[in-house]
Design brief:
Elements lengths: L8 E10 L6 H5 L3 E3 L9 E10 L2 E10 L11 H11 L10 E6 L8 E2 L2 E2 L15 H21 L7 H7 L5 H12 L5 H21 L16
Antiparallel strand pairs: 1-4, 1-5, 2-3, 3-4, 6-7
Length: about 230
């Protein structure tokens, strides 16, 4: 289908490795690790370590996320960044199957509906700052269900008000702000800018939790610098 608009795609590489809890910062602390140290290398995103269980085995889901929100900047060498990050954890990239896939980022100018068709979840667009889509997908589902129910009641399947529903939703409306934030943060070029941004970020998270508590997917948001 030749869907108009919404051409912004983020890039991801992903890998699974067996993991010894004693050798893992993420396992030891019970956290997901988001490592933004490759920003000066042109990565518009982060390296991640997410503790996982696969068929009862302790594993680590590792990867790199590149938002590409600053589209005019050169593309980062994702494979090299992933290789170096894994080496720091005692793993060789070449020893494990590598998966690569794009994800669709939310575009305020993109089209979310056509007659008899609406987009929801990742198809409608994820958060371009960190690529998070689960909380938004759940809310997309609620908004889409309400739109479909209303369409049956009115016998009007044009869905010409669906985008307005998305933009007025308390959670999904944040995607517009996150698009602007991604362009700002990933447009930074110098180390001192990254340092200032990191220092301001925890205060921003606390402010959002206080000002819009219903928008946070967890009760006590916090950022912990571990490296």
């Amino acid at each position: 289908m030749n869907w108009p608009g919404g051409k912004h795609k983020a890039r991801l590489l992903e890998i699974l490795t067996p993991e010894n809890a004693q050798n893992s910062v993420a396992r030891q602390n019970g956290v997901a690790v988001f490592d933004f140290s490759a920003l000066p290398e042109g990565l518009q995103g982060y390296y991640w370590d997410f503790p996982s269980q696969v068929n009862g085995q302790t594993m680590m889901n590792r990867g790199v996320f590149d938002s590409r929100s600053a589209a005019t900047r050169p593309r980062a060498a994702l494979k090299n960044i992933l290789r170096n990050s894994m080496a720091a954890q005692g793993h060789r990239l070449e020893d494990y199957p590598l998966k690569g896939h794009p994800i669709h980022c939310f575009d305020p100018q993109g089209q979310l509906a056509m007659p008899r068709i609406i987009l929801a979840g990742d198809a409608a667009g994820v958060d371009p700052v960190v690529g998070e889509g689960i909380s938004f997908a759940l809310q997309y589902g609620a908004v889409a269900a309400a739109a479909v129910s209303d369409a049956f009641q009115r016998k009007d399947f044009s869905f010409n008000t669906y985008k307005t529903r998305v933009q007025r939703d308390s959670l999904l409306s944040q995607l517009n702000t996150r698009v602007k934030l991604a362009r700002l943060v990933y447009g930074l070029k110098y180390n001192w800018q990254f340092s200032i941004a990191w220092k301001l970020l925890p205060a921003l998270v606390r402010f959002l939790a206080w000002s819009r508590p219903g928008s946070m997917p967890f009760k006590s948001p916090g950022l912990v610098k571990i490296l």
